[in-house]
Amino acid sequence: QKEVEQNSGPLSVPEGAIASLNCTYSDRGSQSFFWYRQYSGKSPELIMSIYSNGDKEDGRFTAQLNKASQYVSLLIRDSQPSDSATYLCAVNNPGGSARQLTFGSGTQLTVLP
Amino acid sequence: DAEITQSPRHKIIETGRQVTLACHQTWNHNNMFWYRQDLGHGLRLIHYSYGVHDTNKGEVSDGYSVSRSNTEDLPLTLESAASSQTSVYFCASSEAPMGYGYTFGSGTRLTVV
């Protein structure tokens, strides 16, 4: 079983819709959770971090964390074509090393004009 | 401004040759990481370092080595390149302890022919 799994995608949504990206993780000791956005041919860029159960909002982005269910999600409201990218979920503490991150394989999002 | 730079951006080498990929950061981060990114596998950890003279193997370390002689640099060496090492390589750094996620370099696309 992979330590961090994301919905495989690709995911297409119309402009203005809500895009929902999901991630599950296996290590109950994980404490830090991140979402990265990666445009084609570019490096990953950190867009959200979350550490506590509940929701965290930043502009059009909302990260949701449920540690009991070992589930992290990213909602993108009012999706724009510029949001088209691959979104990577990352979780710390694989095997007890708090400073390492394990990444999911990513979900490719396309926002259709 | 602080940054993390990788060089070269692109490299083509012959099978069996040795090559070193450079990573230099001016964030003064103690933690540095090397990942490779391949279709279907996401980002996989090759080696990492938590400080000067500290190096550790990641999940895909065979055929790679690193050294850390100062805070700023973590070069990645492929001792005898193989076609299976054709990939995009990303260097990243982070604060210690982990809390802010990684900052990634722009990547090196390596092709082994």
Task: Give a quick precis of the structure.
The complex is a heterodimer of chains A (113) and B (113). By secondary structure, chain A is mainly β.
Instruction: Estimate percent helicity of chain B.
Output: under 10%
Distance linking N and C termini of chain A: 37 Å
Q: What structural class do you assign from the helix and strand content of chain B?
A: mainly beta
Number of strands of chain A: 11
Radius of gyration of chain A: 13 Å
Low-pLDDT segments, ≥5 res of chain B: none
* Secondary structure: helix percent of chain A: under 10%
Our count of helices of chain A gives 0
What distance lies between the first and last C-alpha atoms of chain B, to the nearest angstrom? Answer: 37 Å
By DSSP, the count of extended strands of chain B is 11
Main pleated sheet of chain A: 6 strands, mixed
Largest interface: A-B, 22 and 24 residues
Beta-strand percentage range of chain A: over 45%
Describe this structure in words.
The complex is a heterodimer of chains A (about 110) and B (about 110). Chain A is mainly beta and about 110 residues long. Chain A is built from no helices and eleven strands. In chain A, strands 2, 4, 5, 9, 10 and 11 form a six-stranded mixed sheet that branches. In chain A, a hairpin with a 2-residue loop joins strand 6 and strand 7. The model of chain A has no long low-confidence stretch (mean pLDDT about 90). Helices cover about 0% and strands about 50% of the residues of chain B. In chain B, the strands form two sheets. In chain B, strands 2, 4, 5, 6, 9, 10 and 11 form a seven-stranded mixed sheet that branches. In chain B, strands 1-3-8-7 form a four-stranded antiparallel sheet, with no helix packed on it. The model of chain B has no long low-confidence stretch (mean pLDDT about 95). Chains A and B meet through strand 5, strand 9 and strand 10 of A and strand 4, strand 5 and strand 10 of B.
